[in-house]
User: What shape does this take?
Amino acid sequence: MANIIDTRGLSCPQPVINTKKALNETKEEILTVIVDNVVSRDNVRRFAESQGCKVKVEEKKGEYFLNIEKGLAIKDESKSKETEKVDNIVFYIKSDIMGVGDEKLGRVLMKAFFKTLVESKKLIFVNSGVKLTIEGSEVLEEIKELEKRGVEVLSCGTCLDYYNLKEKLRVGVISNMYDIVNSLMEADKVISP
Amino acid sequence: MGGRPLTAMNIVCFPVKTMDISILRDILKGGIDKIREAGAILIGGHSVEDSELKYGLSVTGTIHPSKVMTNTGAEPGDKLILTKPLGTGIINTAIKGGMATEETIDLVSRCMASLNKTASEVMQEVGANACTDITGFGLLGHAFEMIDKTNKGIIIYASKVPVLPEAINFAEIGLVPGGTYRNREFRGKKVELDPRLSPYIADVLFDPQTSGGLLIALPGEKALKLVKRLNERGIAEAAIIGDVIDDNKERIQVKQDD
Assistant: This one.
């Protein structure tokens, strides 16, 4: 069943805001937005297209019905093939901070990164990245949660040894260079935050 | 353009039953600050109870009859200078939709609250052929008035036009006020847009402005001098954005670059 958002009687930018909210919340593939003026019609269409949706407009007695296909455009181009065969995405985490620059900021970013990440096949932690899988790590819970969902979590053994943290590892398993290299080679996509 | 304001009267419509009276106090306070800055005095006003808030000023000023600056009189070869960035209509729509950052709200508020007083004074020092202010019809609408019923045309260089940050992004996601579409419909036929131009830039060029800047036509050498002086006096965004030409009668050509 399609979702219907009726924005008749509302003036800009409310129809766009309502569409945005509905697109974020709906699980349906198609969202129908009803507007009663051309400005809202064009603005809602623009908004939906800017989000990668396909939009079809029908006019009925001066009112416009916009059928928005949610995210199809994006999926068609890049995601569909990969999502079908369950993407082998490996996150290769080389440091305990995200990006190059201020360390405090890097920590905040890394925390936000793990709070945002929902899907992956494997997480590989090397060098100071291993500080994220040990006792006291700010993102330990998030990584445990990912592990529960079937994500493999590997921490580089040499690195844990080097930092003297082997005893403190609290999530995933200790891994070696052979496994790490293989994992990277087999991955469809390797992402380093 | 070019006059000196002397007195101002408040005109206020206010929903006194539904809105906190302190809001009205703040508005009037802001108004009087600007009246003083403009060198005028407040001499009273009128107030009406209304369901929608409205505020304005009725201003009286003086000008020497030979120094009245109108929006006609631009000559072929003149350069066009714009003194404030565009995009207030689109950004105000985004603010209404709760999509603008504090930083953008602050910037656009300061832009709208800044007077054209200094720009006008500097323009008169340097001397110009024509001047208008950019308000509800947008840059292209008001620029067209400069060449309406003449043999002249205008070229605008989109890359030279100062634009408020985020305005183009907001246009892209459909936070465009109705006035922008109406302006485009009204004057679109008089405007030739470079096909390489992003449609969102075109929106900004048609965007209705609240308290927009001045659009000034004057010969090339003077134009360089004026921009320099405007920049020195703190009007950092002022820039040469186009040419008045002896060709392409009553039409505006928008090019990406010069």
